[in-house]
Amino acid sequence: MDMLVMHVFSPTTEKWTKHYLTVEPCINGSLWSVRYHFFDGSLYTLSICGHLLKFDLQLSCCRAIELPHVVVEAASIGCLGVSQGSLHYSWSDGQSSMTMRVWMLKVDEWVLKRTICLQYFYKHPLCSNFSSASCFSVFGFHPTSDILFVGNFGGIFCYDPCLNRLESICRSAQDKPMYRIPDFVFLFSVNLIPLEMSKWILGE
Fold first, then answer.
1. How far is it, in rounded angstroms, from Cα 101 to Cα 115?
2. Which of 55, 138, 170, 172 could be stapled to 79 by a disulfide with Cβ–Cβ 3.0 to 4.6 Å?
3. Largest separation between any pair of C-alpha atoms in the chain
4. Is residue 199 in a domain?
5. How far apart are CA 103 and CA 89, in angstroms?
6. Which secondary structure element, helix H or strand E, spans residue 74, and what is its range?
7. What is the SS3 assignment for 174?
8. In the chain, where does DSSP find H-type helix?
9. What is the reported pTM?
10. Residue/partner pairs of 38-42 with CB below 8 Å, 24 or more apart
11. Are residue 22 and residue 44 in the same domain, yes or no?
């Protein structure tokens, strides 16, 4: 196995440390998502070769977990996030099945949570002028509920699958589509900094 060097900053020691992690051969040379998620003591990201990557600093290894079999390699990489205490992954098939699917990861196994028909979005009054050539996909997961943040080149929406309700968050200017949206959509959480760290930053 090859070795990966990862530099990690510790807020406790206020220093950078260098970690050497073993990497499985199946992900050598593959492109990775620029988005990383910290969950349950490990870092996670997506590889375009069709794997979820788990960086375990305690075991000094990088594990590759296959994405659901319906995911097409080298296509849209999909969306990864943490919701209601579990890792979630979504991928949209705008070609054959015309569906948006959401899975949960349970003990390294993907469990299908819901399947959403993409026609719902294209037929919705809020999206009536959107082209079906721009596939709707998940951009983010609400941390404490089933709400999904979805969209395409035309805008970003909040979708509640339980109530089947869609609300607009922002729209692109006319004839000015937005690109690479999933890479730059960040969910806002109130004050995630520990209290003592907040005092240090504020100089109190």
1. 5
2. 138
3. 58
4. no
5. 5
6. none
7. coil
8. 119-123, 181-184, 195-202
9. 0.80
10. 39/82, 39/87
11. yes
**Domain stop point among 15, 36, 66:** 66
CA 110, distance to chain mean position in Å, is 15
Domain count, the chain: 2
The three-class DSSP label of residue 111 is: strand
| 115 domain-assigned | yes
Q: How confident is the model at residue 115 (pLDDT cuts 50, 70, 90)?
A: very high
Cα dihedral sign for 84, 117, 177, 74?
Answer: positive
Question: Model confidence at 111, in pLDDT bands (50, 70, 90)?
Answer: very high
In angstroms, the Cα distances linking 87 to 4, 44, 93, 184, 198 are 23, 9, 20, 19, 28
| Range from 53-62, 127-136, 186-195 that averages highest in pLDDT | 53-62
Q: Which amino acid is at 82?
A: V
200: in domain: no
Cα–Cα nearest to 116, from 76, 147, 142: 147
